[in-house]
Amino acid sequence: METLSSERLTKYREQTHRTSASLRLRNASEAVRFVEQRGFILFWPAKGVVMPSLWCAVAGDRPVPDEHDDPAHVTWSWKDELLDKRVWYYARILKKRNTLISNDSIPYFYALSNNFGDPEAEINEQYYQGLLPMEAKSIFETLLEKGPLDSITLRREAHLTGQKSNAPFTRALDLLQKELKVLPVAVTDAGTWHYAFVYDLTHRYHPELLEKSRYLTEKQARVQLARLYMNSVGAATPKQIRSLFGWTEIQTADALQQLERSGVICQSIELEDSKIPLACLTELIG
User: Fold this and answer.
1) Computed over its alpha carbons, how large is the radius of gyration of the chain?
2) Side-by-side strand order, sheet with 89-92
3) DSSP for 11-64?
């Protein structure tokens, strides 16, 4: 079994994650190009998830501090300033974390979602099938009727303002984002903290997604997303990929087999000093 050098993998990720001091992002324009280059990244790093993040590409490979005056928190300003510029797709998607997805890559995510061309008609069917809770249906229908709303107004209009509705509202909003039905599109000065996201329906804010994803098969979408992820991390276990995207074992294996047949990756590669088999970019072997 072939072996991958730990040092080589580390150096590769320093380049693709932009954690090397010479490659750090310095402004919002560079951040946009970074997302376009990688396809998708996390906003902040997540424990146990190997993936590029905007934070680490600015601050280096270190935890997000509690101090609000850390210079790297400029990432928060970039995200807010660009939210309504449509330079990327931002929502809580991968691992229920804030995710930045390039405009070229979002159709592949959409092709794997439970959206089949008529989201407004599908919401009722998915609710009655038990795929969405009542709170999610209420949020979707409120936005459909009222148009974009800040989160404070959205809760009120959806009749989810009671204290017992706090957790269900948050869970429903997270689920709708993960399902690519709802996304934040702006920031407004609302609520106690004078900061709230404005939400809209994905198919209304990005109507082009319906057409762009229409002819993508699920297999094509999974292969492309797996390719982008492997290009970002260099090497990963099938379990890591399965966990990140929420795919089945068979779906993950199929995507990796296609990448292996295409010569993009090799499988059953051992990382130095480890016996766990990895999928690894072919270019990193030898």
Assistant:
1) 20
2) 40-42, 98-101, 89-92
3) HHHHHHTT-SGGG---SHHHHHHHHHHHSEEESS--TT----BHHHHHH-SSPP
Structure tokens at 75: 């990432």
Encode pLDDT of 120-154 as tens digits. Answer: 889 999 999 999 999 999 999 999 999 999 999 99
Domain boundaries defined on the chain: 11-104, 119-213, 217-284
* Domain 119-213 top-level CATH class: mainly alpha
Give dist(CA 283, CA 252) in Å, integer: 21
Q: What is the pLDDT of residues 22-41, one digit of tens each?
A: 999 999 999 999 999 999 99
Q: Are 213 and 110 in contact (CB under 8 A)?
A: yes
In CATH terms, are 119-213 and 217-284 the same topology? yes
Name beta bridge partners: 280. 235, 266
Interatomic CA distance for residues 172 and 149, integer angstroms: 16
pLDDT tens-digit readout, 3-27? 899 999 999 999 999 999 999 999 9
Q: Which residues contact 222 (CB under 8 A, 6 or more apart)?
A: 112, 245, 247, 251, 252, 254, 255
What residues form DSSP beta bridges with 100? 41, 90
Q: Which CATH architecture has domain 217-284?
A: Orthogonal Bundle (1.10)
pTM to 2 decimal places: 0.95
Question: Tokens 């592949």 appear where?
Answer: 108
